[in-house]
Amino acid sequence: MIALIGAAIAPGIAIMSYFYLRDSFEPEPISMVIRSFIFGMLLVIPIMVLQYIMQNEWYWRDTIVAEVFQSAVVEEFFKWMVIFFTAYKHVEFDEPYDGIVYAVAVSLGFATLENLFYLIINGTNVAFWRALLPVSSHALFAVWMGYYLGKAKFTQSTQSQRFFLWISLMLPICLHAIYNAIFLAIQNWLLAIIPFMIFLWWQGMKKVQRAHEHGSKNLFSRPQ
């Protein structure tokens, strides 16, 4: 049991540590990051209940659109809501990269508990693939979400703020939907998921770098 729990939580902790340690200007209070991680975990049960209810309605059964909606839209929307109301408006959200840190924390909290439930049911033989695909993909969707939340937070235009907030929700939903559709609609899904994951990591790291660049500009423009 200890090995199973370790296999379930290790990927989320490792990926979270990586993104947290990349915050080189003003690292976020660890208590805030842990709180965000726990909020993500708390989302799992209500989302699972909602998905179960939706799956039992006749008009949601056995369609790719239904499967994608239940996962991509529901999960990313609730994660976005938690980030927006618990971190986005918090005083500690004081540089663009913070959006990535908090979004990744919430998403990995969700992915870690979800991963634990999955491994309890299916065993640790799938732990490697779970770490490589579902857990890391949740973190990468969050990078896009957090990046645009950071842009929204520090833009001076109300119109631009609304635009970036909208993008911060819709882009992760679209990426999550594509991810799910690959497994549901493509027989040789491995041939499609590998380049897609490479794309997510490549673009995710570019967004991490850009968020740091925006953060350095904000830092050096503050009054000393």
Describe this structure in words.
This protein has 224 residues and is mainly α. It has one domain. Helix content is 82%, strand content 0%. It contains 8 helices and no strands. Helix 2 packs antiparallel against helix 4 (64-88), helix 2 crosses helix 5 and helix 6 runs antiparallel to helix 7. The longest helix has 33 residues, at 189-221. It is globular and about 45 Å long.
Count of the domains: 1
The SSE string, one letter per element, is HHHHHHHH
Residue share in helix = over 70%
Query: Percent of residues in beta strands?
Result: under 5%
Low-confidence segments: 219-224
For the largest beta-sheet, the strand count, sense and barrel status come to:
none
Task: Report the radius of gyration as a whole number of Å.
Answer: 18 Å
**What's the shape?**
globular
Roughly how many Å apart are the termini?
A: 53 Å
**For the residues shown, what is the average pLDDT?**
88
How many separate helices? 8
Summing up helix and strand content along with how strands pair, one would put the structural category as mainly alpha
Please tally the β strands and state the result. 0
